[in-house]
Design brief:
With 126 residues, the chain is mostly helical. The protein has 2 domains: 2-88, no CATH class; 89-126. The protein has helices at 6-32, 48-51, 55-87, 91-119. The longest helix is centred in the middle third of the chain and has 33 residues, at 55-87. The chain starts with 5 loop residues before the first helix and ends in a 7-residue tail after the last helix.
Length: 126
């Protein structure tokens, strides 16, 4: 049943790809004719025109990554809820506090080193 609509799908896919390709060629030509000091001029590579033919691949990758991301997020929510119910200890909160304290200590230490490096201890000699 799905194969009956395959010629229409392929034809429309070819038509959309052709329109996208022609649009990218036109945009490249218009951009190439702009003056060098024009603020709207972009530095497009000529090979970028051929990458516009790959838009169906980009679409499949985008949809696939969305599905994988949403499934992993849902799995994380389910596992996190089960762990909160099963363990009943605030292990995650304590772990986050410990990690945040380590990160904060390193950030404060590096910030203090930068300040001491640039002030050359004239600020601290009082």
């Amino acid at each position: 049943m799905l194969l009956l609509h395959l010629p229409y799908f392929c034809g429309s896919l070819f038509l959309i790809t052709f329109v996208v390709w022609m649009s990218s060629m036109y945009a490249y030509r218009v951009n190439a004719r702009r003056a060098a000091d024009d603020p709207n001029k972009r530095n497009y590579h000529p090979a970028a025109i051929w990458f516009s033919l790959l838009w169906p691949l980009y679409l499949v990758i985008a949809i696939g990554s969305f599905i994988v991301t949403s499934l992993s997020y849902g799995l994380f929510l389910i596992v996190f809820a089960i762990l909160l119910i099963a363990i009943r200890k605030p292990f995650l909160i304590e772990w986050v506090k410990r990690i945040m304290n380590k990160i904060g200590d390193k950030a404060l230490e590096s910030g203090s080193r930068i300040i001491r490096l640039f002030t050359k201890d004239w600020l601290y000699n009082t």
